[in-house]
Amino acid sequence: MPNHLNPTLSEPSIANPLAPDLPLPHRKIIRSWLIPMAQGETGRALMLLLIDASLWLACIAGTVFAENMLLKLVFGVVAGFVTGRIFILGHDACHQSFTPNRELNKVLGRIAFLPSLTPYSLWDVGHNVVHHGQTNLKGFDFVWAPLSKAEYDALSPSRKALEHLYRSGWGPVFYYLIEIWWRREYFPNAQNKPGDRPIFLKDNLLVSAFAIVWIACLIAGALATGQSVWLGLIMGFAVPFLFWNGMIGFVVYVHHTHPSVSWYDKKSEWLRAQPFVSTTVHLTFNWIWGALMHNIMEHTAHHVDMSVPLYRLQEAQNTLETILPERIFVQKFSWSWYFDTARKCKLYDFENKAWLDFDGNKTAESVRVVLSPAPAGQNG
After folding, report:
1. Partners of 356 in the beta sheet?
2. Full pLDDT tens readout for the chain, 380 residues
3. Residue 148: CB partners within 8 Å, gap ≥ 6?
4. Cα 375 from Cα 226, distance rounded (Å)
């Protein structure tokens, strides 16, 4: 049998790409192609964190010492963007791919999550266990999960208005700030908290202490330079934090929301569709934005194998797209594409695999993935 019909762990068949009309191989086989790239480097990781932390501190200082209002705003916005870069480093650490040392990753991850005020352990559960474990599976993966028409119709008018805001194209900052950070990460209530582990409280206290020190430094800086305390807090705290929430909300949205990407409400169907490949989008850019975001947009490779560090994601993504032609969703970014996606992707018809608008009209049909055979006795 030809290699491309029966790829094995020892023979990844890079020279013989898998035909687009064949079922995807098991995830273990796909991951085996990326093994050479799944190696972290401690020195490189520490250098990346040192560079980004220094940039963040310099930008925050810029919001204090710059006298021009516009310049303060620029420093605040850049600080928000660098917050996103540092978070991506912490994201790798939380996946245990940043360095080869597990305990060091936990320390570095907590440090990297401080500017975004992200409690490490709670994010670990929500992201590693829930999102990566059940990507685009309704009822489990809660990040940007679309509602069905029936679910939407049952909402209160105020909640419907919130859904309209979230999916307007202008809503990622509100979505992430409210639905993810506030409700599920920062001292979540019993309904949203995944248990009562003591580490959840400790991590929340850690980021709260950091926020207090951050705010205190801004106040001290404003007083020392004879400037407005409120202006200092807005430019040095509120602007970076809000920009970061908009950035992460946008990034997560475009990673898994696309007119061609399917969502599932039956686990058996979801498993057969190899969701680690078929539910992610590789967003490409004309300029160096992908590199500036530590290559996190090479997202298919990340979902296939979370142990690939960010500084090898580009190589891993290229490998997957070579072996699996026409299988990876590759989308060139433009604002017109983004807002068209926001216009189309409001609600979802899980039975017919189609995106709907809020009135229930079909706006796009998702690509139906060639499903692998279901195990004996398994049904939806």
Report:
1. 347, 362
2. 333 334 443 344 555 788 877 777 878 888 889 988 988 899 999 999 999 999 999 999 999 999 899 999 999 999 999 999 999 999 999 999 999 999 999 999 999 999 999 999 999 998 888 888 889 999 999 999 999 999 999 999 999 999 999 999 999 999 999 999 999 999 999 888 888 899 999 999 999 999 999 999 999 999 999 999 999 999 999 999 999 999 999 999 999 999 999 999 998 888 887 788 888 999 999 888 888 999 999 999 999 999 999 999 999 999 999 998 888 899 999 999 999 999 999 999 999 999 999 999 999 999 877 555 544 444 43
3. 347, 348, 349, 350
4. 70
Q: Where in the chain does DSSP place strands (E)?
A: 281-284, 329-332, 347-349, 354-356, 362-365
- CA angle, 184 as apex, 299 and 252 as ends, to 5°? 20
- Is the Cα torsion angle 15, 20, 25, 27 positive or negative in sign? positive
Helices (H), 66-101: 69-94
Instruction: Retrieve residue 52's tokens.
Output: 């980004």
Question: What are the residue ranges spanned by the domains of the chain?
Answer: 41-140+169-265
Distances (CA, A) of 345 to 168, 205, 270, 324: 10, 37, 19, 26
- CA-based diameter of the chain, in Å? 77
Please give the model's pTM, rounded to 2 decimal places: 0.90
Q: Read off the DSSP letter of residue 264.
A: B
Contact 166, 158 (CB under 8 A): no
Query: Minimal CA–CA distance to 17: which of 282, 306, 318?
Result: 318
Contacts by residues 104-110 (CB-CB < 8 Å, ≥ 24 positions apart): 104/42, 108/45, 108/46, 108/49, 110/203, 110/206
